[in-house]
Design a protein that fits this description.
This protein is an alpha/beta fold. It has a single domain, classed as Rossmann fold, CATH 3.40.50. Helices cover 27% and strands 29% of the residues. Strands 1-2-4-3-5-6 form a 6-stranded mixed β-sheet, with helices on both faces. Helix 2 packs across helix 3.
């Protein structure tokens, strides 16, 4: 498994919230790819928290909208991670900047694996958010992983209609 060189400074396109804490974390998917994530925790939170994994949109990195979603959800009381999918951003995998529905669906399941073993996470209350193209990956993950209790697909297209009608 590859070791990632993660930046430790605030590198987001949005301001850092004073309502939560942030740290960089890594985890692995079942293909052996190391995934980089930003973990957001509500400041002063105690006990086991509900958790959410966030990724997308297609071609973007966690320093953009998925990180903003994760930070905002942490302000609302969730422990969250925004992760770069395989082959993208600070995450590992080659070739770079490609998408694989199978591997990227597994990335969400690996994020749930990671969250479910955190001491301060209620493993019975884990959800996922997929933004844009990653909305479909989130739905795929929820269909196969019963640990996922809530799923939001933040997409701007009605893909079933597009698929059916062109």
């Amino acid at each position: 498994m590859e070791k990632l060189n993660l930046t430790q400074e605030w590198d987001k396109v949005f301001p850092k919230s004073d309502k939560g804490d942030h740290k960089k974390v890594t985890f692995h998917n079942r293909y052996g790819i190391t995934l980089a994530a930003d973990m957001y925790t509500p400041r002063g939170a105690e006990g086991k928290l509900p958790a959410i994994a966030v990724s997308g949109p297609f071609g973007a990195v966690k320093e953009q909208s998925s990180g903003l979603y994760a930070q905002k959800m942490a302000e609302l009381g969730f422990l969250t991670i925004a992760f770069d999918p395989s082959y993208t951003g600070e995450s590992g995998g080659t070739p770079r900047y490609v998408a694989s529905p199978d591997i990227n669906t597994e990335d969400f399941c690996a994020a749930v694996d990671f969250l479910s073993v955190q001491e301060n996470v209620d493993s019975e209350r884990i959800g996922i958010i997929g933004i844009c193209g990653w909305g479909g990956m989130a739905i795929n993950a929820a269909a196969i992983d019963t640990r996922i209790k809530a799923t939001a697909a933040m997409t701007m297209y009605d893909m079933p209609r597009v698929t059916a009608n062109g």
